[in-house]
Write a structure and sequence with these properties.
Helices cover 79% and strands 0% of the residues. By secondary structure, the chain is an all-alpha fold. It has a single domain, classed as MetI-like (MetI-like fold, Orthogonal Bundle), CATH 1.10.3720. α6 runs antiparallel to α8.
Length: 269
């Protein structure tokens, strides 16, 4: 018994050279990638600025945090929620026809390929580029952020919708087809009941992402928290920046809790 074990151990694959080569290549790539990283260095007051940022976050301006005018944090929270929510709704609605066109199990392959190319093209453009484009068209404000969120949502939501459509139970479709149902009836009674929970869960997940993206897009003037936050930081008003960040953290936590509960309800029934 022991001899057989020793014999098998001696005949084991000796791939240490292969693993060593992979390790050397990996280290070489890391070193080569690091050589392209450049830093501008730190200034003498960099540590003090970092301390001021932390103090501002932990000592927010309460008068600004509880200012219920259009310049206060509560209004900015509401504006950010509206941008993210309406942008998600627009993206979810636009994604439905694109997903059905691009699903290879429902449409001919050339049409599905063309639909996927459109979705890929939409996903390729960064959100900042869309934001700058819509700001040029509509001017700065919440409407530009809404349009940006809607278009950016199409790429991800469509991809998730396509996967859900291609995973549907085809036996239900075949049974409806054998019963003489037309295409609309098959979609209404055979496809949509299977897809609605996945569609809703995907839209809610995208809403979580849009909540964070809406803040970043605000930095280019697309409404929400972003612009006041960057103005406060550029003016070294760390207490105001801390108030905005505190409101953003509270908002994200609330939305995360609600959306998680809804997604669990949809997936588990």
């Amino acid at each position: 018994m022991n001899n057989r074990i020793l014999e098998a151990y001696e005949k084991r694959p000796k791939d240490w050279m292969y693993n060593l080569a992979i390790g050397i290549i990996f280290v070489g790539l890391m070193v080569w990638s690091g050589s392209a990283v450049e830093t501008a260095g730190t200034t003498q007051d960099g540590g003090q600025i970092a301390l001021n940022v932390l103090l501002g976050i932990f000592q927010p301006d309460l008068s600004f945090l509880f200012d219920f005018t259009t310049q206060g944090v509560p209004y900015l929270m509401l504006e950010t929620i509206c941008i993210a929510f309406l942008g998600t709704i627009v993206g979810a609605i636009l994604s439905i026809p694109l997903a059905f066109i691009s699903a290879s199990n429902l449409t001919p392959k050339p049409i599905a390929f063309a639909g996927r190319m459109i979705i890929m093209a939409v996903r390729t453009v960064p959100a900042f580029v869309y934001g700058l484009m819509f700001i040029r068209v509509t001017g700065p404000g919440a409407f530009a952020g809404l349009l940006t969120m809607g278009v950016c949502s199409v790429g991800m939501i469509s991809k998730m919708y396509i996967e859900a459509i291609e995973d549907i139970d085809t036996h239900v479709i075949e049974a409806l087809d054998a019963s003489g149902f037309n295409m609309w009836q098959k979609i209404r009674f055979g496809i949509l009941p299977q897809l609605l929970p996945n569609f809703a869960s995907t839209a809610i997940y995208r809403f979580d992402i849009n909540m964070r993206d809406a803040t970043i897009l605000g930095m280019v003037g697309a409404g929400g928290f972003g612009a006041p936050l960057i103005f406060a930081m550029n003016a070294y008003r760390w207490n105001e920046a801390g108030a905005i960040l505190a409101g953003l953290i509270i908002l994200i936590l609330i939305i995360e809790y609600i959306s998680t509960r809804i997604r669990l309800k949809l997936t588990r029934g």
